[in-house]
Design goal:
The N and C termini lie far apart (49 Å). With 137 residues, the protein is α+β, with helices and mostly antiparallel strands. Helix 2 packs across helix 4 and helix 3 crosses helix 4. The chain contains 6 helices and 4 strands, in the order E-E-H-E-E-H-H-H-H-H. It has a 4-stranded mixed beta sheet, covered by helices on one side.
Length: 137
Amino acid sequence: MALRRPTNGAAAVRFTASERIDELLGEVVRQVRLLPDRHELGGDAPAVILDAEVQGIRCLFIRSPSDDRKSGLSPREREIARMVAKGYANKTIASVLDISNWTVGTHLRRIFAKMGVSTRAAMVAQLASEGVLSDLG
């Protein structure tokens, strides 16, 4: 295994075909632990964490800006949050999205857990205060 360190502090690793994938994962863990603090990498700017080539396949591990995912919600969760903010009931959301009422409830429970809230109103208030609702349409 060859290891080189580019100028941005990321690690580049080249594995030969005979080396195992668990070595790659171990190297990823080691390199992530050696990374400088986020502030030393330029704040929330995207950064290459690890640049590895395994059996001729290049793998890039990139740290994205923290606000890329808007409060950590998945695209479907953002869609449901937008509909809740517009005042839609679970049954209406389920009908529009062609999913079950149960699935809407599951998405809402996950949204609440991610955001640390327990009500629809608290979820909408937090999303509004973070400026996420303006992006949701």
